[in-house]
């Protein structure tokens, strides 16, 4: 799987009736169910998370760098799956090669955590979007879509970035062309109601996958908070 292929899989074709949120939630749900009884397989993780690439195209040209970086991390995990089938095997291989320094930039364990954090970001965003749907029904305060993205970023990624990166991300978020939650749903071929069901499914699935990866690191006496 080449980088170009990883990127193209996530692209939304104009006029196409794909439902990337539903596809992502379904794949992540299957992955979450599988890790209840079996190790987390890297190929399955990459297959589920490649659906996230479609969302980058909706965030405007400023998000192109994020998409490329995320795709590169998925590509690295996909390549790793050629020799280490599971996330546990990957972590053990890094431990053998890098000792306790698995958090170092460039290690596959680092990329695994970054992909997990991407799952966490969307979990946080979908929680906020579900709250916004309820606010709209109750005629409460309406927060713009880019405002919700900023809140999700602050909750998940901001503390891992220095001030310069935070500033760059803030500028990129302000440039997001989609401004309302309902407009975002329409862009991905969902209604408020159908999107709510898929976001609930995603959140439950994300909880299972995130917990599995965190517990995997803890079982080796390591933290995944880096």
UniProtKB/TrEMBL annotation:
It comes from the Eukaryota. It holds the Pfam family GLTP. One of its GO terms (cellular component) is membrane. Residues 41-189 form the Glycolipid transfer protein domain. GO terms for molecular function: ceramide 1-phosphate binding; ceramide 1-phosphate transfer activity. PANTHER family: ACD11 HOMOLOG PROTEIN (PTHR10219:SF28), GLYCOLIPID TRANSFER PROTEIN-RELATED (PTHR10219). This is Glycolipid transfer protein domain-containing protein. It comes from Leersia perrieri. The lineage of its organism: Eukaryota, Viridiplantae, Streptophyta, Embryophyta, Tracheophyta.
């Amino acid at each position: 799987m080449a980088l170009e292929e990883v990127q193209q899989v996530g692209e939304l074709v104009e006029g196409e009736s794909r439902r990337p949120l539903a596809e992502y939630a379904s794949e992540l749900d299957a992955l979450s169910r599988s890790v209840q009884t079996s190790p987390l397989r890297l190929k399955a993780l990459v297959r589920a998370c490649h659906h996230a690439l479609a969302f980058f195209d909706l965030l405007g040209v400023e998000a192109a760098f994020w998409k490329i970086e995320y795709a590169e991390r998925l590509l690295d995990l996909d390549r790793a799956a050629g020799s280490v089938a599971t996330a546990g095997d990957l972590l053990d291989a890094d431990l053998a090669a890098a000792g306790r320094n698995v958090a170092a930039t460039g290690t596959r364990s680092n990329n695994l955590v970054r992909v997990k954090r991407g799952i966490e970001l969307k979990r946080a965003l979908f929680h906020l979007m579900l709250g916004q749907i309820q606010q709209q029904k109750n005629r409460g305060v309406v927060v713009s879509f880019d405002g919700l993205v900023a809140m999700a970023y602050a909750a998940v990624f901001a503390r891992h970035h220095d001030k310069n990166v935070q500033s760059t991300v803030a500028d990129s978020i302000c440039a997001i062309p989609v401004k309302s939650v309902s407009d975002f749903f329409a862009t991905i071929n969902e209604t408020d109601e159908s999107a709510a069901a898929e976001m609930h499914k995603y959140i439950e699935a994300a909880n299972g996958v995130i917990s599995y990866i965190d517990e995997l690191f803890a079982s080796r006496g390591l933290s995944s908070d880096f």
